[in-house]
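Recap quiz, item 2
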Amino acid sequence: MNAHMNKAGASAEYSGHLRPEEKQAWLKMIHQQHRRQLKKKRRIVLTTQMSILLTFLLIWEIAGRFKWIDVLIFSYPTKIFMQIGKDMLSGELWPHLWMTLTETAVGFLLGTLVGTLLAILIWWSPFLSKVLDPYMVVFNSMPKVALGPIFIVLFGGGFTAIVMTTLSITVIITTLVVNSAFHEVDPNLVKVVRTFGGSRRDVFRSVIFPASFPAIVSTLKVNVGMAWVGVIVGEFLVAKVGLGYLIIYGFQVFNFTLVLASLVLIALAATGMYQFVVYIERKLIRER
Amino acid sequence: MNAVMELKGVEHVYVSDREATLAIASMNLSVYPGEFISLVGPSGCGKTTLLSMMAGLLIPSKGQVLLHGRPVSGPDAEVGYMLQQDYLFPWRTILSNALIGLELQKSLTEERKQTVIHLLEGMGLGATMDLYPSQLSGGMRQRVALVRTLATEPQLLLLDEPFSALDYQTKLQLEDLVAETLKAQRKTAVLVTHDLGEAIAVSDRVIVLASSPGRIAKTFEVPEHIRESQPFYAREQEGFNELFHHIWKELEATERKE
């Protein structure tokens, strides 16, 4: 047995003289070495990231306390976190945070859904696609937030108007991205379905949709960012509740600590939502 | 004997913004049950157009395409089509890929599913059924594509250069497998290829096409003893090289006339 192993050609050059158990141990050692190195690199990156953040916060704090910068405008970190803490404890913050999160989630989900449905409709009817093309181009190039006042007149100054502003931003871009994903599907996969006598409906169900599913899911990530733009602008324009409203309110009473506190919350919430979508994406794609 | 597939005075015109071009001119062709014929010819001779017509994906501008004497008006369960590459759906498992034809034709029963599983096992794919296409080699994937085509039990198989994307060794193995499987199941087949050796090794008749417009230049019968032997050994048979040179000359002649 051993003699046979040694004859195994090229492998004898590096590890052929080892017995099978030893060879296993040797491979395991190399693998562990590799993993240790990777871990070390990750730690260095994380340390650098944390030190940048901490240095920034520290300089800001010192500059604020020693009045090197105008505290009224730039505030400083502990003051901002005290503000957040205070508003949380008094319960004043929650309705604002909750409202903004709801609006963003609704705008985001609805935008993706309506955009995808529109893309399906356009794929289904090439005639409709040709007819709608110039309108889509115009609407896509236009800064949609300019429609804000019209939405307020139409839907009143509240939840609906803000969600509509968000939709105006997310829907068209979703439609365009998803529709182009539909058209990028390999025509030969479609041919496979057609040779089996599949109808247009079959083509969509068994090829076009599953093939573009990853693209649809990745538009979710784009839409999260878009939805936040829509919601905050919408709240700037009309709202009485929400983080966007807090920013405008803080600005009007010249409480920039409140403005910055709202910004910090928006950054945290937006990142959280984005990470959630990334998590969902990974789950959905891995299932396949 | 009644032809499985018959082309009668078929002509086809391709229309573009610039012009209308004649792609196929007065084509007459009959394919008989159990026969294996190959179409060879320069690019632009309308080989794929012909296959698309036989598959019912394309309706000719003029003339008739008849399947068992009935005019073809669309894809038919009697006809199977195999493409240049496997084109397996990456999001489906191997078994699910092999069953797609039955699903689309709404004829998926437990019994037919078992038949497909047997087919996969017969081609050495038994262990791969729950894997995804990306986990298989090119040759294995093309074998899955063959099973997918055979799953709907078509009588006539249209093979559009199914070996062209494979490496040489895999290609030879797959040629043998396809030729034997089709012979064992008494299928009729039309193969499009640009590999002359392959055409002679697997088929009963080799049809040389000329281009612009696509038409039949000449038909060659493959001698009995080459036909009988496995494709791999057919290449060593007496007369193989002579036939190869004959067809080669004919191909060169059609290309020079243009």
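The beta strands of chain B are 5-15, 20-31, 36-40, 62-67, 70-71, 79-82, 156-160, 188-192, 205-210, 215-221.
Residues 168-184 of chain B form the longest helix (17 residues).
End of item.
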